[in-house]
Request: fold
Amino acid sequence: MLDVSFGPDRHAKIAYRFRDDVAEAETYGLAAWDGDLMIGAIQYWPCSVAGVKALLLGPLAVAPSYRGRGAAKALVNQSLRLVEDAGLDLVVLIGDPKLYLQYGFTPARGQDLSIDGEPDERVQMKPLTEAGRRATGLVSPGT
Ligand SMILES: CC(C)(COP(=O)(O)OP(=O)(O)OC[C@H]1O[C@@H](n2cnc3c(N)ncnc32)[C@H](O)[C@@H]1OP(=O)(O)O)[C@@H](O)C(=O)NCCC(=O)NCCS
Reply:
């Protein structure tokens, strides 16, 4: 599903620098199922911004024939609730602002927060605490 959604060369993307050699934050990842067929998934990876513990959201993907029926919305909303309940400070992601605005993400450039090599307009953030709201600087992989 990820190969279909992001292409077989997806491992070359900058986001994978945050996933290679870092253990997934499995507590927050979710999958959507149609019977025993996995039709969507969301994952999170530990990262940090100037000492503030954060999570990088992604990949988020839904199988093509199941798109447009609310699966992604359910995956994002339910997983973000888990992240929020756990008391984490900040969620960041690399993606289209048009897709993530509805979940409360805003462009990180307004806060001087960036991901090395990624255009500013692709970096989105959702602070969950005061520490998250104050986080500035480069996002680094792992804790
Ligand atoms: C993007 C993707 C995950 C959306 O999955 P989906 O299950 O079709 O999304 P939903 O049906 O839950 O849509 C939820 C909302 O997001 C909107 N939306 C969906 N895809 C969008 C996109 N690419 N850009 C902007 N908005 C989008 C929908 O219109 C819907 O809004 P509404 O509730 O106001 O009607 C899916 O198209 C996909 O897997 N694409 C390929 C991988 C990808 O691009 N992932 C995101 C990487 S940043």
